[in-house]
Amino acid sequence: MPPDLTVQFEWAVPADPSQAAALTAAADYLQSILHAVVAQNAADPPLSQYATDQALAYARHYVQENVDLKLAMTGHDHYYRPVITTTSGTVIDVRVCEDQTKVYSKEIETGKVHLTSDSSTRNLVSFDLVMTRLPTPTGMWQARAATVSENAAECKL
What is the pLDDT of residues 20-58, one digit of tens each? Predict the structure, then answer.
């Protein structure tokens, strides 16, 4: 990440190894989206490393919107309050909240930062990610589906 963008994941690592791996992979997925926006590349390799299927399509669409608008990101992005539900040995649902109050769009060409002054739930986002374990020796996890809800009152700090 560039020096003007920090990302904070505020949570304890679960004791269950599968849940811990799925949560770490969810964080990697979310960071890969930010990385692709900053790189202005909807085909940024980390996206397909950490996502597949609908989650990859969502990420690429989100990144492409920012590429088309020539916007990067700056500020402090904060993820917190994970809720982890094991569906099976190879599928885990991870829901996390994001507080976008201090992360802003930045014009690539001019460097102009688009500040927001609204600290209501408008800047709170909930990500519900379906994480799947790949049949690899290391047991890598990928996001398979992503449901994103803006104005997420359940994410209020």
Answer: 999 999 999 999 999 999 999 999 999 999 999 999 999
Q: Which helix (H) or strand (E) holds 104?
A: strand 103-107
Structural domains in the chain?
5-155 (3.10.450.50)
- For residues 10 and 127, the answer to whether their CB atoms sit within 8 Å is no
CA distances to 77, 84, 122 from 143, rounded to whole Å, are: 20, 13, 25
Task: Give CA–CA dist 22/92, Å, rounded.
Answer: 7
136: Cα separation from own chain's centroid = 23
At position 20, the amino acid (one-letter code) is A
How far is 25 from 74, CA to CA, in rounded Å?
Answer: 23
- Residue 22 in tokens: 């799925």
Give the single-character DSSP code of 51: B
